[in-house]
């Protein structure tokens, strides 16, 4: 009798063990392991300027990003016939701004540099913009309805584009209205802008920046994050 009882207990124990194994198969909702924490951007300092030179498929572009509190002003150009202004704000170290021509600037501050992607005229330029101290930065000046803007690098070399008009707000509104052919229409509008290489940016004897627009002397202004075009 004892022999049969032991055999029965062994059989029951084996079934219970199999049940535990079967129930523990797969993932348990209470299983613990390394947690995945989403990384977040680092907050920008109160003010600063960040500059990058980018080349993509043989196309060159430079960008200067200025920060003033939460305000952002950025300018990108190829030093010849294309440019883009960006105005907006950053949120906890992140930038996501469109230009008037639907160019885009998306970036994140990592505590030192600004890393992201600039898209101008349909071409995407990944970049890493590093901190730059004045007199490096973005400079702009206008006279007689014509504006020139430059990105001055830390090595003191500057590239800039002169904008002489050619596109009205009505053109941009119409580009938005033509939704079925928005990109094509916007490209046509963009091509009507009068853009050319800006005159050289120089340091004057008094330490300020100087240049000319159509032969007229101008004193460019250093762009801060709160700067906005009139």
UniProtKB/TrEMBL annotation:
Protein name in the entry: Uncharacterized protein
Highest rank taxon of the organism: Bacteria
Keyword annotations from UniProtKB, A to Z: Signal
Signal sequence segment: 1-22
